[in-house]
Amino acid sequence: MWSYLFKRLLHMIPLLVGVSLLTFLLMSLAPGDFFTALSQNPQISPETVARLKAQFHLDRPWYVQYFYWFKSVLQGDFGYSMAYKIPATALIVQRLWNTFLLSFFALIIAWAIAVPLGIWAAVKRDSWVDRACSLVAFVGLSVPDVLLSLLALWFAAATGWFPVGGAESPLYDLMTPAQQFWDRTHHLILPALVLAAADWAGIMRQMRSNLLDTLRAEYVTAARARGLGEGRVVWKHALRNAINPLLTIFGYSLAALLSGAFIVENIMAWPGLGRLTMEAFFAKDSYLVVDCVVMATGLLVVGNFIADLLLAWSDPRIRLNK
Amino acid sequence: MNEATPIQNPAAGRTLSPWQLFRRRLKRRRIAVAGGMVLIGLYLVALFAGFIAPHSFERLDRDRFFHPPTWPQLAGFHLVVPRDEPLPGNFKYRAVPDDTRPVRFFVRGDKYRLFGLIPAAVHLFGTGDDNYPVYLLGTDQFGRDVFSRLLYGSQISLSIGVIGIVLSFTLGMIIGGVSGYFGGGTDTVIMRLCELIMSIPALYLIISLRATFPPGMSSTQVYAMIIVILSFIHWAGMARVIRGMTLSLREQQFVLAARALGQSNLKVIVRHILPNTFSYVIVAATLSVPYYILGEVVLSFLGVGIQEPNASWGNMLTAAQNTEYLRNYPWLLAPGAAIFVTVLAFNFLGDGLRDAADTKA
Questions:
Q1: Is B90 inside a domain boundary?
Q2: Which of A144, A267, A274 sits opposite B294 (nearest CB)?
Q3: Pair B275, B350 in one domain
Q4: How many domains does chain B have?
Q5: Which of B111, B139, B167 is where one domain is finished?
Q6: How does DSSP assign B91-129, residue by residue?
Q7: B262 phi and psi angles, rounded to 5 deg
Q8: What are the chain B neighbours of A150 within 8 Å (beta carbons)?
């Protein structure tokens, strides 16, 4: 098992290097850079601009820039944000944490809704419960994140129950720790719900069809033939095997979750990686864009690794085979 | 769930082709057929958008910002629209009693080009009088008709999906086919590239790709750019699946026969292997159209896609991001409803197609 996990871990490194290379190449193809606007300012001498450019290695070819960037990243330094004028590492870590919080809570909400509903729909197959669930799931799959986020904004503005955007109140720094905790939770609830609403439908449908498949299996018929109660058949025999494929889609759902978070963050002003990416994009802060893309990919890759870990833990065939 | 499909058609006394069987199974899925009907309707409306829209997409009505939706009322034997006068204060309007104009059909109005080519000025309906406008879905912050803009926006949203699918699926099928057929080093390189593209969360990659395009592009260039960006990401997933199917297909007798007959590799892939993946491809294509529609919406919404004054469902929603607008003028969310209906219809149709193509069910 350990060698399998070690291999998976090693696999992540070339992937992340590849992603950073690709993003770097793309950003080098982008017309203009952060200093293009500065060079049009008559109050700033061309020499100053050239000096600043040289300081950020922006006067060198992209692969040289990449080399400098890579070297400092290996030392845990993600460079300096030209637009924010602070070290990028602090900025990235804070935003990464926010995106992680948002995605993590959305994930918990989505799975807490989707798994029981999926089980219920499969057990009561073709009943009104099943039909209602599948209809709602279809609607859930089709509602665009953009619309859901806008509706949530409208809801927050109309009722006043939730703050309209942001991650903390303006007076956050003056609060006691307990108040701070509540303030952050209060800000988190609505974006996390929106993100979960976009995510649960796929998981529910998968759970339902997995359980239906296992309920058709012969060992389930055998369990019933032995005279076991239906509850015991479903919970003890069928469900355990139905959960396995679900762990596989956990990885896929993460990718969708991060893209969804990108939209939710930008509309609901949640200061996460997605929002930072857009801000860096508009400011032409190219290193920061690369940092964000690599970080988001890292989040996804680590999530997939955890999914593999869970899968290896729950399914002996995987950990013994490889 | 459904009874076994008869292989023999007793009336005709002959075997049904796979295509006929497929159509039969599809017809039984009412909701998929309904989804298909809705889509046909939407595409027809998009095709004749200029004719059906009562106004042009960029016509500004400076007297009527945030005008609420007005629906024609029945008076006697014809439809009439009232004249609204603005009340003092913030964009509130009141209908003037007994001051109406009948709605006329095939009325002359703003100039437009039918199908983007034929100059025309006849609209399906309207009053022909600028003081009595028909705003079915109200107006936005510049006094532009939301309904008309919705129709013009549908041309972009609905066509982007189809063109994008053709582009990315052609690319994905050929690359996937080549990768699976030749195997070895080619396969490894292509598959690593696919993994690379698929491992970046889609929107982050979309924004990085967007950065490589210069600012100040024409609307046609932006339109093409959106398709290229979305297809660049989308082909990878397709290529992987096609590669998997090719791996098993290339060992089959008919492929070996074709190779033994001395056909070129390209011909074997295109003529013999890829057609066997079509049933999967059609289903996957239908289910992927929403990805393109939503991709355009997000890009335009974030201000890096279709630019004003051109209308797209995404950039129309940007106005709704202002909570003050959203609370007071909820009709600005109309494009959101349009996206929802379109995506729902595609999902219903795609789901039905998948079940109908699944011969084991």
A1: yes
A2: A144
A3: yes
A4: 2
A5: B139
A6: TEEEEEEEEEEE-EEEEEEEEEEETTTEEEEEEEEE-S-
A7: 85, 20
A8: 317, 320-321, 326, 333, 336
Q: Which of B203, B207, B326 sits opposite A157 (nearest CB)?
A: B326
* Same-domain pairing of B70 and B169: no
What's the pTM value of the predicted model, to 2 decimals? 0.85
- Which range of B27-31, B100-104, B187-191 scores highest in mean pLDDT? It is B187-191
Residue A15, Cβ neighbours under 10 Å: how many? Answer: 18
Evaluate whether residue B44 is within a structural domain.
Answer: no
Picking from B122, B139, B156, the residue at the C-terminal end of a domain is B139
Residues A274, B203: C-beta atoms closer than 8 Å: yes
Q: How many CB pairs under 8 A join A and B?
A: 132
Name the minimum distance, in Å, from the CA of B178 to any CA of chain A. 23
What are the distances in angstroms from CA B133 to CA B67, B130, B153, B319, B335? Answer: 10, 6, 20, 22, 21
- Segments forming the whole domain that contains residue B65: 61-139
Q: Are residues B152 and B192 in the same domain?
A: yes
B289 belongs to a structural domain: yes
Residue B359: pLDDT band (50, 70, 90) is low
User: At residue B339, does pLDDT exceed 90?
Assistant: yes
Q: Give B92→chain A minimum CA distance, Å.
A: 19
Distance CA B132, CA A253 (A): 51
Q: Least CB-CB distance to A142: which of B214, B215, B344?
A: B344
Q: What is the mean pLDDT of residues B212-222?
A: 84
Chain A residues lying within 8 Å of B198, measured CB to CB:
255
Gap from B76 CA to chain A (nearest CA, Å): 39
